[in-house]
Amino acid sequence: MSGSMSEDKRDLYFKALNSPNYGSLHDKQHNLIQYLVRSHVDSFNFMLANTLQRSLESLPEHAFRTEYGQIISFNIKCRQRRISYTGPLIVTLGWSIDGVKQEAIPKHLGDVPVMVKSNICNLKNLTPTELVQKGEEAEEAGGYFIINGIEKVVRLIVEVRKNHPLCIKQPSLKKGGELFTEYALKIRCQKPNGFSRELTFHYLSNGCVQVSFQFSKVYYIVPVMYLLKGLLDVSDNYIYDELLKGNEKNSFYKSCIIFMLRQLSNEDLLSQSSVLKYLGSKFRAMYNNPWLSDEIMGERLLSDYICIHLQSNVDKFNLLVYLVKKLYAFVRGECAADNRDSIINHEVLDAGRLYSLVLFDNLYKWLRSIQYEINKLLSSKSYTTITPDILNEAIRRRKTIVSYALNYLMATGNVSAQSSAPLWQKTGLCVIAERLNYHRFLSHFRAINRGSSLKKHSIVGVRKLYPESWDCKYVV
């Protein structure tokens, strides 16, 4: 009986070898193998079709004033041409002088990495026979980049869930200032183009709430009442009523709201316009537009840093009211602290979003570098006014900054320490796709990595089987 079983197994194992079609290529690739890396390819394609355009549309117009009094402003349109595993990045630079539009200038900013089997790769939609003719594998699924002959894969790294408030109780929050407590609420606001900013609502021991955000690695703190007053042109009584809804019987909460409103009165900030002028005067150094009024600068601050995932000031106002209410409820013990280590509060940073964030950050850095070169040329007295010649010379000196950043990211897995891209970590973002065996190679595309940021913040909780974590394996 054992002999017959071994013969059955032998027939099963060598069935494919005895097939008359053994060694011949199929008309189509196996769907299962393509599915294993599809998330990487789809994320890159989504970036090309949607995120890239949205990033360029939201890229702020860069403007500056020369020493001769001319106001120069830039805006960018971008397109890529299909070429092997790298593609030339060509931008169309629109510019104006004192509000008068000039002729747009197309410029080649170097070759940038292209994901294999993406929509702009020349291997897209090829049959197994055509792939073999080009020297590729018949079941080539792509999903990686080729840098200096080495296959590199973008790691899928865990980050905090977007647009979702998390209540936090952390003793280290007391180091923020004299009145700061361990109670806070965090929310990571993310635009449709993938760009995000984190807001932290701090509860102070005197009952007030202040909001902190980051700009160029520096944290700024603003009382929440200043933001509410600056978003809408409403009376103090309207703000008081909105914050008090559902808590009419809480006398301590009432006194906290009144105290924060009195702070506005003490600063003589009684209208939306006065608050915007006050914020604009304090944060003017964050922008390079000295010719704009304080009120416009205040509007820019609220638009660029406060609840950036919302377009309407009414929606931003309502969200801030909700977040303040939730923070006070958390302090009173009416709701529990959120578990930041729970899978329900996580999402994954994919290849397409990482690529677009680094591209967006370096395009804006490139515009600032052009301003530096133009001012340098004007100070040399070789030019006395802005012309296409001086602009072309400034671009020529700085044209490799964008392509260098993307190639450096894929080659080393790191972004520059000076990068302003909203990333939780700036190292270990890409790894070599090792081909020790087929399973090892495919594991790079399916692995979810915790990353160094979650370890650094010490938010790992006790391993419990939470309802939302059923049938999920914890990453390491």
UniProtKB/TrEMBL annotation:
This is DNA-directed RNA polymerase. It comes from Octopus vulgaris (Common octopus). GO terms for biological process: DNA-templated transcription. Residues 77-389 form the RNA polymerase beta subunit protrusion domain. It is an enzyme of class 2 (transferase). The lineage of its organism: Eukaryota, Metazoa, Spiralia, Lophotrochozoa, Mollusca. Keywords: DNA-directed RNA polymerase, Nucleotidyltransferase, Transcription, Transferase. One of its GO terms (cellular component) is DNA-directed RNA polymerase complex. Its EC number is 2.7.7.6. One of its GO terms (molecular function) is ribonucleoside binding. Residues 197-348, 432-470 form the RNA polymerase Rpb2 domain. Belongs to the RNA polymerase beta chain family.
